[in-house]
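RECORD TYPE: inverse folding
INPUT: structure tokens
STRUCTURE:
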């Protein structure tokens, strides 16, 4: 298992009425992240 040395916490706040569009944008990034060999973990949390 790869030991993670560095992490990023990125917060996004969708504009009113753009919540679904923002969520779709983040979901669409998943294939790109999975193809990136140096990305060992990625989490998206909607509050």
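DESIGNED SEQUENCE:
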């Amino acid at each position: 298992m790869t030991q993670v040395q560095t992490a990023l916490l990125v917060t996004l706040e969708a504009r009113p009425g753009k919540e679904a569009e923002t969520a779709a944008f983040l979901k669409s990034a998943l294939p790109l992240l999975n193809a990136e060999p140096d990305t060992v973990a990625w989490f998206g949390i909607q509050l």
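NOTES: The radius of gyration is 13 Å.
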